[in-house]
Design a protein that fits this description.
This protein is of the alpha+beta class and 1072 residues long. It is built from 34 helices and 30 strands. Strands 1, 2, 3, 4, 20, 21, 28, 29 and 30 form a nine-stranded antiparallel sheet that branches. Strands 5, 6, 13, 14, 15, 16, 17, 18 and 19 form a nine-stranded antiparallel sheet that branches. Helix 18 packs across helix 30 and helix 30 crosses helix 31.
């Protein structure tokens, strides 16, 4: 509606005027944003955190029976040479262990992933000098495939039966649950058919492993002999003799005897149709367990898939045999829903507080349309998000809370100005259009500069951009629609404003609102104005005071009173335990350590029951997967709100660790209680060619790390070694026609085995292995008595053709960029201490280390490596953004100095954030800077409008001192309202104590306290700094003209106008 006395011909021109006069167009635009937002919301995929693209691949090669040194020399080095010159390679790290090698190729952030992977595969395929007995290299592209959910198939039944049931469930989940594409299994042994001979049988019948293997290959097969065409049609000629059962393998003929008889497999060997020759203990609450898990893939909805899998599990439970159970083991959707509920509840409470404040500070109709404007801006953002490839996750949803202050600020600035003009007697369309045009310039530039501030987070390279980009895109989308709403839609809705009346159903509310308004006017006139004059007159002292506060805040960070971490620790509800023993550790020792861990969990459970009687059990479930030398356990705790004493996961993990006691022979013991596991460690890679020098350098570094109280579990990758049996061919062997290759191959056949064939079974390839029986393989006496077969059929003792001696060897060899590498790792008791350790090493240790070990190169790897590169890139991009912002504002305001006044909010917003972190005793993290950026956006908006008002007053003849005071008084209420609404909008999240909210606390605290501090910055510091700018300009003008310039404030006259009484010389705004 518009004033009937105004005609369309009288309406101001321009896009603002057109929309203000055409309420149908404005309403349709609003409806499109709101309905489109609802539609876009339901198109978004739901996930806890954004999917992360990883640039790289792993080349894995199996060489059964080979030592780590052999794998390094004959496989890894040759493949590394083929990969080193590929464009886009960042680092190549390799690991050689017994029987296999792994080469990890990390690409640079800017690399084109498909082309990069194709070139890796092409170069790996070109390597043609790998050992004949090794398997073909397999290239696996890195993918972000975290576990979405996992469930345990468990029970007291035979492991083969349990694995068959698990395989069936895996296939059904993959085929029957919509959206599931990757399903895996953990805690199972691969099946294997082992043909086990004894040395006595081999000697008695004059057999060799080669002869038995050939017999199996030639007799156990399915073969096609073509087809025969008959009158009845074509008939296929086939032979189906592929052995599949123990009896069928036992019946295979090895040799025809001289008397016409047959020598079968059962006569010379024992057939074991079982599992691979490896140890495994996989349990869930003490029962045999196999874990089936669903992995994440791009563009999936965690809630939908979780619901689909759980519906399947409900159906499947009724079909399972007695004694077998299905238990949900891990579900990411539960974490998603818990954290989303926390954010949504805080948002609803905060939004309610914002609405209350708006209706108390603004007249009801203005408050209503400002509120509608918030929903319109957010609706427009939701409309765009599916097109921007943004999912609904913790970060994107919280970004809406982050930007609410700027969105409200835009609407308040426009709405307040229109309301002011209505109160001065203007009516309808004219007040709406002129009032909007007056503030359009600062509002537009405020949005543009804020967008420029958030844009660098989208341009960084590396996996972290997937996190930062989500926040930036939401902020930019919301700000874009906020600008559209405040300049095009809101004026149309406020074009019907008339002077307020206390009559009607809103009479009491209007009376209350007017009372508050008059109180604010009184505060602005009676309290703020004298303080503003005082601060401007003492402008140098005011500026120095704020600079002093800024320096104090930086000192808090510099002295670690406010710590700094890259990513905040996100508490998990499951403790993940990893214990790594030395390669070659007997299975009995692994079982002993596993029992030690189980006993510690039992003791912890009883301890918490006695400490907190009547509460739920602290430990809900526990799972363990133990293999040779390795133990992994998952201890699921009660929900955080249900735990006795509300104990954090880290405290429970520490209790279990202490009760477990030391494990002296462990290479690694980790108890991770956070989702971002591994964030509490420091790791260094020492590289060189001399192994002894590397070992000495690692010892020196470990000794230094032990001097820091904040570090523990200091280990290196060369901490343990293993004993090797090394063969040296004797001269007599050559006379028998034997080579070293012949000898080592026959020893490998005896102890590791010869693969005779692979047979398909239930979708798996089952290997058929010919080797010595298990007892013989476990004894060194067998090696001493082993017979080596010559080409002419003779048998000679191994000791007659080769010298065998013990020698120390490495159980694992690591390489980095073509050189042998030792990795030294230490755990941090406090993540904040990372910076202190790094600084101490840089100043006190590394110089002498580099002098002592000139041939050893060093790199800090792991999380710190990514942090350093990320922060350097962010700083460079932010500097570029700041320079661009300055140039834009300088051109817009035609001033070199005023952009500094506007942008000064950015560093000083950090001051408020630092004090907030100090009060809450939390470290500043990466996402804290997003809070600073959002707060800076609010303050830049306020500073722009304030300075624009000052410039308008000065352009119309008002003195600088009076313009600064009067503009501050005029802007007092909207500046206060913006700060209050922003702070209240996020206050519920700041007060939230649940573990789900702790990840977002740094961002919230930074925004809340930065906005509060910036309130005083805008009202006092910016006018004082503006006054200093006037002093400087007058000083140079006086030097140039030779005339004495008046001092600031000499022409000041107290005026008595505030809200609703802006002088008439500002009534006319520049043309739109």
């Amino acid at each position: 509606m518009t004033d009937p006395n105004e005609t369309h011909q009288d309406a101001p021109k321009g896009i603002i005027g057109w929309f203000a006069a055409n309420t149908v167009a404005a309403n349709l635009l609003m409806i499109v944003a709101l309905l489109g937002g609802i539609f876009g919301y339901f198109q978004l995929n739901r996930e806890v955190f954004p999917s992360v693209a990883i640039n790289g691949a792993t080349v894995s090669v199996a060489w059964p029976g080979a030592s780590p040194q052999e794998v390094e020399e004959q496989i890894i080095v040759r493949i590394e040479e083929a990969l080193i010159d590929i464009d886009g390679v960042d680092t190549i790290t390799s690991t050689a262990v017994e029987g296999s090698g792994f080469i990890n190729i990390a690409g640079k952030p800017s690399v084109d992933i498909p082309s990069f992977i194709d070139e890796i595969k092409l170069n790996v395929d070109s390597v043609n000098n790998l050992p004949q007995s090794s398997f073909r290299p397999f290239v696996n592209q890195w993918r972000n495939s975290d576990w979405l959910l996992g469930f345990a198939v468990h029970g007291d039944i035979d492991r083969r039966d349990l694995q068959q049931i698990s395989d069936e469930i895996r296939d059904e989940v993959a085929n029957q649950v919509p959206g599931v594409s990757i399903v895996g299994i953990m805690g199972r042994l691969n099946e294997e058919v082992s043909i086990e001979l004894s040395e006595q049988s081999l000697q008695r019948y004059g057999l060799s492993f080669d002869e038995v293997s050939r017999a199996i290959r030639s007799s156990s097969l399915n073969a096609s002999a073509g087809s025969v065409r008959t009158e009845l049609g074509d008939l296929s000629l086939t032979s189906r003799q592929l052995a599949d059962t123990q009896a069928e393998f036992e019946d295979i003929i090895v040799r025809q005897t001289s008397d016409g008889g047959t020598l079968r497999v059962r006569d010379v060997a024992r057939v074991n149709d079982g599992f691979v020759d490896a140890n495994l203990a996989s349990t869930y609450n003490g029962e045999n367990m196999v874990v089936v898990y669903v992995q994440t893939t791009p563009n999936i909805d965690v809630v939908d898939i979780s619901n689909g899998v759980q519906e399947y599990l409900e159906r499947k439970r009724a079909e399972l045999p007695d004694g077998v159970s299905l238990s949900l083991w891990w579900d990411n959707s539960e974490m998603y829903e818990a954290r989303m509920d926390t954010i949504m509840n805080s948002a609803l409470i905060g939004g309610g507080l914002v609405l209350i404040v708006l209706f108390l500070f603004l007249r009801p109709d203005v408050a209503f349309w400002v509120t509608v404007g918030i929903f319109t801006a957010f609706g427009g953002a939701f409309l765009l998000l599916p097109m921007l490839d943004v999912s609904l996750n913790m970060l994107s949803l919280f970004a809406f809370l982050l930007v609410i202050g700027i969105v409200v600020d835009d609407a308040i600035v426009v709405g307040e100005n229109i309301h002011d003009r209505v109160e001065r007697g203007e009516r309808g369309l004219t007040a709406a259009v002129v009032g909007t045009q007056m503030v359009a310039k600062p509002v537009i530039f405020a949005v543009i500069t804020t967008i420029m501030m958030f844009s660098p987070w989208m341009m960084i390279t590396g996996p972290t951009v997937q996190f930062t980009k989500q926040i930036s895109l939401v902020v930019i989308a919301a700000l874009t629609f906020s600008l559209i709403e405040s300049l095009l839609i809101l004026p149309a809705h406020l074009s019907h404003l008339k002077p307020q009346s206390n009559k009607g159903i809103f009479g009491p509310l209007i009376a209350l609102q007017r009372g508050i308004a008059f109180t604010l006017v009184a505060v602005a006139r009676g309290i703020y104005r004298p303080l503003a004059k005082l601060s401007i007159r003492n402008r140098y002292a005011t500026v120095f005071a704020f600079v002093g506060i800024f320096i104090i805040s930086l000192t808090l960070m510099g002295t670690n009173r406010v710590g700094s971490v890259f990513m905040p620790q996100i508490e998990n509800e499951t403790i993940q335990v990893s214990i790594q023993l030395a390669e070659g550790t007997p299975w009995s020792r692994t079982e002993q350590v596993r029992s030690q861990l189980d006993a510690a969990q039992d003791e912890a459970l009883q301890y918490y029951r006695s400490e907190y009687p009547g509460n739920v059990d602290m430990i809900e479930s526990r799972s363990t997967v133990a293999t040779d030398g390795s133990i992994r356990a998952w201890i699921t705790l009660a929900e955080p709100e249900d735990r006795p004493g509300a104990l954090p996961t880290a405290d429970v993990a520490q209790t279990i660790r202490e009760m477990m006691g030391p494990i002296p022979d462990a290479e690694e013991v980790r108890f991770d209680s956070t989702i971002n596991e591994g964030g509490n460690s420091v790791s260094f890679a020492l590289s060189g060619q001399d192994l002894d020098e590397l070992r000495e350098a690692a010892d020196a570094l470990k000794e230094q790390l032990r001097s820091y109280d904040t570090l523990y579990d200091i280990v290196d990758s060369m901490q343990t070694s293993t004993q090797e049996l090394q063969f040296t061919l004797r001269p007599d062997a050559q006379a028998l026609g034997l080579t070293l290759s012949d000898v080592t191959r026959q020893v490998r056949q005896a102890f590791y085995g010869e693969e005779a064939q692979r047979l398909p079974r239930d979708g798996q390839d089952v290997r058929v292995i010919v080797r010595l029986d298990q007892d013989s393989r476990r004894s060194l006496d067998t090696l001493r008595d082993l017979r080596i077969r010559t080409a002419d059929g003779r048998e000679v003792p191994l000791s007659a053709v080769a010298d065998v001696e013990f020698a120390p060897g490495l159980n694992r060899i690591r390489r980095r960029n073509g050189m042998r590498t030792v990795t030294v790792t230490a755990e941090l008791s406090d993540p904040i201490a990372r910076g202190t350790v790094q600084e101490s090493l840089t100043t006190e240790f590394w110089p002498s280390f580099d002098t002592r070990f000139p041939h050893v190169s060093r790199d800090e790897i792991g999380q710190a490596e990514g942090e350093r590169e990320f922060m350097q890139e962010v700083i460079n991009l932010l500097l570029l953004a700041l320079v661009s912002m300055y140039l834009l504002l300088a051109i817009a305001f035609r001033s070199y100095f005023q952009p500094i006044l506007i942008m000064i909010a950015i560093p000083f917003a950090l001051t408020g954030a630092i004090f907030g972190h100090f009060i809450y005793d939390i470290p500043i993290a990466l996402f804290s800077y997003f809070g600073v950026g959002a707060a800076a956006g609010v303050v830049i908006n306020d500073n722009l409008v304030l300075i624009d008002f000052v410039n308008r007053l000065r352009a119309n003849g008002v003195g600088a001192f009076q313009a600064l005071v009067d503009a501050g008084v005029q802007r007092f209420r909207p500046i206060l309202l913006t700060s209050v609404t922003t702070f209240l909008g996020i206050f519920p999240m700041m007060a939230e104590q649940s573990t789900q909210a702790q990840f977002l606390k740094p961002m919230v605290v930074a925004l809340g306290f930065a906005v509060v501090f910036a309130l005083f910055l805008t009202l006092f510091f910016v006018p004082a700094l503006y006054g200093i700018g006037v002093d400087i300009a007058r000083f140079f003008r006086g030097m140039w003209t030779g005339k004495k310039q008046p001092s600031l404030g000499s022409d000041y006259q107290d005026t008595d106008f505030a809200h609703g009484e802006l002088p008439g010389h500002l009534d006319h705004s520049p043309a739109e």
